[in-house]
Every structure is written in structure tokens, then in C-alpha cells.
Amino acid sequence: MSDEQEFDSAFEEARAQEAADAADRLKRGQSWDDWLKIGTFLNIGRNKAMSRAGTNEPVGARYIKAFSEWMAVYSWIGDIDKATRVHAMWAVDHLDDLTRLRENMGLTQRLACNHPTSMRRRWDKAQKEVDKVAPTAGKKESRADVIQRELEQVAAERDKWKHKAEKDGSLFDLKQDSTKIIASVIVANMSPHRLRELHKALQAEIDRVKAAQKQAG
Length: 217
Prior knowledge:
Radius of gyration: 21 Å
Structural class: mainly alpha
Largest sheet: none
Helix content: over 70%
Strand content: under 5%
Distance between the termini: 59 Å
Number of helices: 10
Order of helices and strands: HHHHHHHHHH
């Protein structure tokens, strides 16, 4: 990486190196995992550009300018066309759904969908097929339908909290938000090392409270 590049955290620097290495590997062949690394880093840039532009949505002249300036720092990004960049970021945003879709593909089909644009087309096709066989009103939901609906609800809530955090700096409401959402937000915003330290701290605090309660009893 160039010494001129500045990073806000060790996490961002590591993702930058992963993405650059992935871009180099892509010159020799397509890899879904490599595209996800690139999409992850592009999403970091997207979020930084939104922050610098003072917007909660990746739109507008100020955002476009900020994102373009951020991308210009990394020469390898210029080798990837705009549509592919957009699809790589989209793939990361929809990773859980795409992972399930890929698990249901045969090996040959998965290999044919290693490029994010190919995966987006496969996803769109799958959605059209679902629409054709959508259950009629009043028909009992299958277990898969229930899980899918719950995942979509969680994703919607996660996006709501993300926008809230960008607006007022609050990641979640400890009194109202579910423990599942709180956990997902924490995992998305902390490094593995910090997560391990948090787990130890929480366990120590639980042990302290139990001991205090035992003494009080």
C-alpha cells in the first residue's frame, strides 16, 4: 500500500490490503470471495464519502465527488468498471441472501456466477421465479418463507439503526432494541479482537453481579 494513503483504523487498513490483493488475483481469474473483499472495501469508501458529504444516502453531487476522490487514491479501483463496482457493493449488502442462494446451486452454476454482475442476474432471475410460484392469499407459509420474512425484517431494522447512528451517533437503544439486533450491530462495528475482549468483560460483569446477589441473599 502507498505511504500516502491514510486510514481511520487498523480494520480499514487491513480491508484495503485485502481488497488490493483480491484485485490482483482477479487479473488471473474470477473469485467470489475476492469480489466480496472488494465490495466490502468499496462499502467502507461509500460510507466515508457519505459522511464527508453530510448525507445519509449515497446520492448527490457532493457524495459523488467525495466517493470519486476516495476511489482515486487506489489505482486498482480504476481497473473495475462502474457497473461491476455497484454490483460488488450490492452483493455485500445482500450477502446473507446470496449465500443461501449459492448454497442451493450446483458447482458449475456457482462457478458461472463468481462475478458480481453474473450473481446479480442470477438473483433477479430467482426472484422472478419466486414471484411466479408465490403462494395465494391465505395459504400457510412454509418454514423457508417464515425465515425469509424474518430475515428481511431484521435487515430493515438494521438499516434503520444504521441511519440513526449516522444521524445522531447512537447505534442502538438498549431499552427497546432486541438482543439479536444489538448483537448484530456490535459485531458489525467491532474487530474480532475487540469482540473477544467485550465477551470477557461481559462475562466478568455477569459473574460480579451473581456474586453480589448471592451475598445479598
